[in-house]
Amino acid sequence: MNLSPIPLAVRSTCPYCGVGCGVTATPLPDGAIAIAGDASHPANRGRLCVKGAALGETIGLEGRLLHPAVREDGVLRQASWDEALERVAGGLRAIIDEHGPDAVALYVSGQLLTEDYYVANKLMKGYIGSANIDTNSRLCMSSAVAGHKRAFGADLVPGCYEDFDLADMVVLVGSNTAWCHPILFQRIARLKEARPEVRIVVIDPRRTATCELADLHLPVKPGTDVWLFNGLLSYLARTGVQDAAFIEAHTNGLQQALDAAQVDCADPLAVARHCRIDPDDLMAFYGGFAATTKVITAFSQGVNQSSAGTDKVNSIINCHLLTGRIGQPGMGPFSITGQPNAMGGREVGGLANMLAAHMDLDNPQHRDTVQTFWSSPRIAAKGGLKAVDLFKAIEAGTVKAVWVIATNPMVSMPDANQVQRALEKCELVVVSDIIASTDTNAFADVLLPALGWGEKDGTVTNSERLISRQRAFLPAPGEARADWRILADVARRLGFDGFDFASAHEVFDEHARLTVFRNEGAQRRVFNLSGLCGLQAPEYDKLESVQWPVRRGAEGALEGSARLFADRRFAHADGKARFIATAPRAPANPVDPEYPLVLNTGRVRDQWHTMSRTGRAPRLADHTAEAFIDMHPQDALLYGVREGELARVSSQWGAMVARVQHGGGIARGSVFVPIHWNGQTASDARVGTVVNPVVDPVSGEPEFKHTPVQVERFGVAWHAFVLSRSELALDQVAHWTRVQGRGFARYEMAGRGQLRDRAAWARALLGVTDDADWLDYEDASDGVYRAVHVVGERIEQCIFLSPRTDLPARAWLASLFASESLTQLDRAGLLAGQALGMRADTGPTVCSCFGVGRNTICDAIVTHDLKTVPEVTACLKAGGNCGSCVPEIKVLLIQTRAREAA
User: Fold this and answer.
1) Which domain holds residue 743?
2) What residues does the 4Fe-4S Mo/W bis-MGD-type domain cover (predicted)?
């Protein structure tokens, strides 16, 4: 009889996008962790996208940074925590004493928990006395922050996810929601299924997976959002669709906003021409918006990541203010946050121009409030350096020390070559991370091992202001420590009081109390956690998700706030919202004959940021294995590149190499490249080296969506791929990408030099000895070579090489690595370059949740005469979990049935 205790599931929060899904983690007897959606969490009600569902595959210790390290004579060596912390504190103190507090900086991350963020900002702004602390949220959400502050008086998101359920029209602007926020997209899809009359409008230069749900897609010219929404504002005012009573009583600045809109955007035909969209489609959008009271306008990086990002945000908000569609159920502007705790970071002053608890650095009363509460020796008196300017200052030598925490700026920043020059020059580079080898860590003088997801404990806040707990369910590995603790340790070594925190709970309580301190009268702030003040440790441990502002009800129960502005009172001193005049302006860098194409960047479906976490999960690599350059076929023909072949994208700032594809969703004159690949996963695929460093003048957010580039052929003599259980050294290969498989690594590669002896080259690359079990096939006239290395009866490595890109399918080969022995048919198939017998090639993965390939879906459509996505799901399960693959299944249904009918 088994009397072993049943393992208990720990409730936590997903560490990826800003939807903020609840998860449960259950330890299994074999040491694995079972991950599931938390059915009680309000953000997702048990649903998870494939990234969240694959979290259990990312928590192993391979590649983890487990011990502090310091650099001596150019080489990192393991060190004790005492030595490493002394190196950090001593280095910071020496630089501050000689050059002042503004000579040091922190660069942090939306991956941090609120408690970590709080201690970092307290240290920099209240004790070191500099506001030189910025965050990678600057790269994705700072335009939304600035737009909120200009319109509402504070960084306030008015609505909640329930508003999507109640809306009669959902407008998605600059957001591939289906891929970037899948659970929120599925909420919209269920709304559409339940109420087909609900209108879905997608505004995006690309035709993305999100457009498969849309009633209307407006493929606007990149950078023209302000023209579009100024035109809408003008149309609404001209047709009398405005809430005059609301405008009079609760807003300021309408006439100035209308005057700015009238200059270029009063004529819908002129707007349509400028935005390069069909005039009838434009009028359908304008008319639908005018006729529908319950409208949600949700926007994300396509709006924010622009040199006019803040104006884009305000042009959207203006339309909601004009119609009074804000603060009520089913309506309002809605910023879809990029990172799991971008909002939590903003709550504690994570950006260089903010103070904790939604207070402002440029407000003397606010500075006094924070300094008094902290009893700190000083307070930053002016805004600090924003991300792009920070790394410019490091290169210039005015900032001499930088502490990078939980982010990888060598990959994620624009003009990444400049970031490299800055880090090479910096006197002291400290990095806190969970991964040992990253592009940024290569420049660290001190490496500090931090806790990762599943090990750390604290809170995060999602896009709808919902505070949730991240809870630890794994022990701290090696010598890793919580980020808040590392920061507090350094603070104490710098001689500062006020950092004697014993737990994340104590940090959170101080944070909550600061939101209440002097929060009344003329200084009243909307952000208020009074209901969470004084929580005891057990209460903090059991804290349920709650939306701020949070107060206590009559019976002492927590009362959150689903929506803001229901009382029509805003956070400006006069209680009114402000219309903002948004004069349209083009992107900062126009195309020219040398750089004639517009580069747009963004995410792919199954990867996250710079892949330090998702790159470890084999199932997440199956859908999009390599970086790519998506471009229109006619542009490819014009610039001499072919689909499936390698090309170089270059700008005046840098270059990268990836494979050309024709996704079918991009207009002529533009290219799209994903952001994820780094120096550990590819030889030359960091798109950040190409992106221009121009920023929005208000928010400081870079223009990731519009960089003039050229595309040219990257000539190679041969293409190959390797599947190997052991790691390979690829220094001599012109181009390569590493893809994590199940029990092996896959390498896609290409080279420029002719291979005179392919067998000898392959053996040397794979490290195969002469006496190894080595089976190979060569067609010297065609340049084709195939080989397999077998150890015992199990496949150890295989290599396929050709002068062309038409190499064998990878999926069936990958399946061989799960077998303990190769059959004779398997061996024959390896040498023939195709699956034989029962091992069918399933094709590239479409549904990552259930591992269903394209060929499997297409075969089932034909064999079983499937006509709808639910029929495909019933047959194969594909599309039955997170739904991210549903748009792709729809396309396969159309293509396959059309092919069969032809």
Assistant:
1) 718-832
2) 7-63
